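> tool_call: predict_assembly(chains=two)
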Amino acid sequence: LHFALTAAGLIATIYMIFLYAPEEMTMGEVQRIFYVHVPAAWVSLMGFLIIFIGSIVYLWKRTQFSDELAQATAEVGFIFCTCVLVTGPLWAKPAWGIWWTWDARLTLTFLLWLLYVAYLMLRNYLVNPGRAANLCAVVGIIGFVDVLIDYMAIRWWRTQHPQPVVLGGPESGLDPRMLATLLVSWGVFTLLFFLLLRMRLRLAGMRRELSEIRHVLAFKVSED
Amino acid sequence: VVNKYLFVAYSFVWLIFMLYAWNLSRRQDSLKRELDKVKSRIAETAPAAASGKSGS
């Protein structure tokens, strides 16, 4: 059902982006990048929120699932954050005339991507799994500060990056068809995120089962 | 004519998601094969071990 919903949603989103949403007056067709750039950014921020919660629960309760959840989310979130960093410059070049600028929002999003990379590198390069889980949990908690500042950056400071068009105050707003397309795209990106997360968690479960069986076998061999 | 930036952006997004989903299913298949192999080896050795213990 989850897969069917996501697939149907993706088809509906493509229809809405290219046929339903009107063309923006100043930027023209290239503005349609907005409908993947913004939902991918939302999902990357939400991903780090899940890592933050998983990390706190892991350090507090020491449950293996919370660590697996944080690890799986880091991998999926990294994919979405990469989409943000690729689609952003592809939109910036025709809209601003430059690929990149070190303004607060862009820099903090790049830092978020680096945090995802750091999390995954720590996980893969530390030999001791317990130590890796502890260190990654610390990165997951401290790194969440970047998410909060990144979210507020375009509200606190006037940046090259546009001000928020949704939940951004009285001067913000979108054409109703653009807003509907954005919301549908956001919902479908969220569904896609959780679909990939479920697949990644299943992988973690299988890996755990295999290591438990191996552990029992090794114990039996040493007993014999 | 489709805007080239728009085309590259959407192509990249679809490509990265398809590649990641393919990579996940490939890793799942490989782990499943390994799990099945270990389980079948246990199933093979368990009756032999049990009969060995009951014999002694």
